[in-house]
Amino acid sequence: MENKYQKVKDALKEAILSGQYQIDHKLPTETEMMEQFNVSRYTVRRAVGDLETEHFIYRIQGGGMFVQDWHKDWTTESDSNMIGVITTHFADYIFPRIIYGIDQVISDSGYSLLLGNTHNDHQKERKNLINMLNGKVAGLIIEPTQSALPNPNMDLYQEIKDDGIPVLFINASYPQLDFPAVTTDDVGGERRIIDYLLELGHESIAGIFQVDDIQGVHRMNGFVQAYQQHPEISYKSNLIMYQSGDDFTKITNRIDSYLATEDRPTAIACYNDQLAIRVQAYLKSQGLRIPEDVSVVGFDNYQMAQYLSPSLTTLSHEKEIMGQDAAKMMLKLLDKQDVQSITYDPQLIIRHSAGKPGKSAQD
User: Fold this and answer.
1) Model confidence band, residue 76 (pLDDT cutoffs 50, 70, 90)
2) Which of 111, 132, 166, 170 would staple 106 via disulfide (CB 3.0–4.6 Å)?
3) Is 111 helix (H, G, I), strand (E, B) or coil?
4) CATH number reported for the structural domain that contains residue 39 in this entry
5) 136 with 80: CB under 8 angstroms?
6) Looking at residue 18, what DSSP letter applies?
7) How many Å is the maximal CA-CA distance in the chain?
8) Closest CA to 344 of 324, 321, 313
């Protein structure tokens, strides 16, 4: 069992690494730490002594304890054969195919992957970045975390840039960083699928978008742009915005409120297939037929989408190709070659979850 001293040390170190205590920030006094952790002065001093030895803390005589500039020289070692891959998730949805595509190319060139996932949380992103940099990875392939929100980890990204460590982004990018990226045209793709619903005769469409990720913001913009081409019915559009940590009931409550209106939506466009699958299941639980009562569309062409009943109309996502292209770009970066960002054009995949209002998609 972990002893008290180790718990205090780990808690303080975590607070420093996560940015809770900034460089040169004064730490709580020994007495305050004793009360905070409910431990003896000896325990606090032992924990703090270790952190001082490890260069996380420095003391000023009579002034207290402060956070030292713990950032290290993370310059890549010339013989490193490890490439770090950080995604928001990697156990499900589209991510296994992306990682598989990266590994196909990387392993053929003698490199190995070091994987990490952030669960779309900035603090977890910070921990992953530090762990991989301490491991002296040769380069980093990163899916941004909550990319539509201010990122508290810009100090680390600036150090990465200053140290010359190759970095590229997948699926999205941080606007304030100029690293190359492999992405999808989320605006154009969403506009295409909304145009399809409008052509089928839907006028009132509900769009549900995750707005703490820049992909969701872009897809929402595509939704709006499609309606801007039809100003006579633009007032019938409906938007539901949510963040990654929101409970699904918040979304279903908004769906219910829209469906209860006289001019209720006849179609629902979801941020991605993962959400669309949950929305379809919810609508069925409420006794609604898809697409006869409500059409549902997604984005990303998740493998399971074709096996739903009815199968899901969606937009393509390159997945494995994205991983392969990202890996090829990384190898070029490691070889000091210039690379250009890649943007895929998602294609409409018509299945059976969308049809004319009040009719089956197969009519």
Assistant:
1) low
2) 111
3) coil
4) 1.10.10.10
5) yes
6) T
7) 82
8) 321
